[in-house]
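anyone seen this seq b4? input:
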Amino acid sequence: MTDDELMGLAIDEARAAAARDVADVPIGAAVVGPDGTVLATAGNRREADEDPTAHAEILALREAARVTGRWNLTGCTLVVTLEPCTMCAGAIVLARTQRVVVGAPDPKAGAAGSLYDLVREPRLNHRVELTSGVREQECGDLLREFFRARRQRVVGTEGEGTS
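predicted toks r here
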């Protein structure tokens, strides 16, 4: 599968995360093995699981490790709709992931080239290949629409119940 097609899997997971009863921020991820087999897909579940570590990347890496029977994901590619945060970037490095494909940048918390570049930090024992900007507009639009709708809900309920 191409990076564009793989990002489509991650986008599907992002949409599913936002559509839950307890809507999670629409971020999705997929892990692909060295042979191109999709090992895992996941969407954010922080709200659904009430777990601060339930980011899409962490969940996808955990599932890929379970499927392969090993924590070391050498040769694998992680595809994610939003640039990973420091927690996720650290997990990506520690899992020995070979490559990360990113959709939208995260200039406020990104740790794969925007605010930090942890995945390619030369002082660490492993560096990850990075491809950024795959379906960037579409990935960014998912997030912008999610937060626009959330702000409208908050603004729409502020005047209720007062007289």
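The mean pLDDT is 94. The longest strand covers residues 38-43. kinda curious what u guys think
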